[in-house]
Design a protein that fits this description.
Blueprint: E1 13-28, E2 33-49, E3 53-57, H1 64-71, E4 79-84, E5 87-88, H2 94-100, E6 104-107, H3 121-132, H4 137-150, H5 167-179, E7 185-189, H6 197-214, E8 217-221, H7 225-231, E9 234-239, E10 242-248, H8 249-254
Parallel strand pairs: 3-8, 3-9, 6-7, 7-8
Antiparallel strand pairs: 1-2, 1-4, 4-5, 9-10
Helix pairs in contact: 3-4, 3-5, 4-5, 5-6
Length: about 260
């Protein structure tokens, strides 16, 4: 428990990232010797306050998605600290980490690849409840239907499979799954990139409504600057694994320091 000392941030700060690094080794030859590193995330620091949306933008390959995955411990950090609600996620393991996962979730970019085609909608949305033993049986069925209704889907869809839905509907299923355990923090990893333009605004509006209703905190990763401007309180700009600029969205758009 010594690793989980309380962070010195203010009570308003939900997430505090300090000098976070994620390097991927480059290996060559028959023996696969390490000859270098790809510095996907190279020493970034930022804070997200409770109920805030921080937009994270950058060109493809600059490390935005890796940042989100490393924060959630889906990728193990090479160095640095990630404090969520006063605990350093990079130091916790086992049961403590499993319990922390209830407080942090992710909405993936591709609604076609992120849903298991062999599972029904009810099984997909209810899986987090099953894994964490939150609710079972009839109570779980009721909760799953509540979640579907919450994201604008018919509760009777629980017996259907992902291939029976449009891209926008699949992303709503992914959002319902992310909400199942009542998280405080959600990484939105380019949640609208694979959707038609006509559907993108609907999904962003849904995320905003859910944020107001449940006091959610978002890290919103995207390449679409107009959508980031619409949903974000502040915007961070990444370039080659580093944050080169972070400020209120008005300042970023009216007086950008990076091209």
């Amino acid at each position: 428990m010594a690793d989980m000392v309380q962070n010195q941030s203010t009570s308003e700060d939900l997430l505090v990232v300090k000098n976070l690094k994620k390097y991927f080794p480059i290996r060559r030859g028959v023996l696969q010797r390490k000859v270098g590193d790809v510095k996907a995330v190279d020493g970034i620091s930022f804070v997200i306050k409770r109920g805030e949306t921080l937009g994270l933008v950058g060109e493809s390959g600059c490390g935005t998605s890796t940042t989100g995955q490393t924060i959630l411990h889906l990728e193990r950090a090479t160095a640095g600290e990630v404090w969520l609600e006063g605990l350093d996620i990079t130091k916790v393991k086992g049961e403590t980490l499993r319990l922390m996962r209830k407080r942090m979730q992710i909405i993936f970019q591709d609604p076609f690849a992120s849903l298991n085609p062999r599972m029904t909608v009810g099984e997909i949305v209810g899986e987090p409840l099953e894994v964490h033993g939150s609710v079972k049986g009839k109570e779980k069925e009721v909760r799953v239907k509540e979640l579907l209704k919450l994201v604008g889907l018919n509760p009777s869809f629980v017996t259907r499979f992902p291939h029976e839905f449009s891209g926008g509907q699949r992303q709503r299923i992914g959002i319902a799954r992310a909400l199942a355990l009542n998280p405080a923090f959600i990484v939105c990893d380019e949640p609208i990139a694979a959707l038609d333009v006509s559907i993108q605004a609907q999904v962003v509006n849904l995320l905003e409504e859910l944020q107001k209703q449940f006091g959610l905190t978002y890290l919103f990763i995207a390449h679409d600057l107009s959508m980031v401007r619409h949903i974000s309180d502040r915007v961070a700009v990444m370039y080659l694994g580093r944050i080169v600029e972070i400020a209120d969205w008005r300042k970023i758009y009216e007086d950008p320091k990076h091209p």
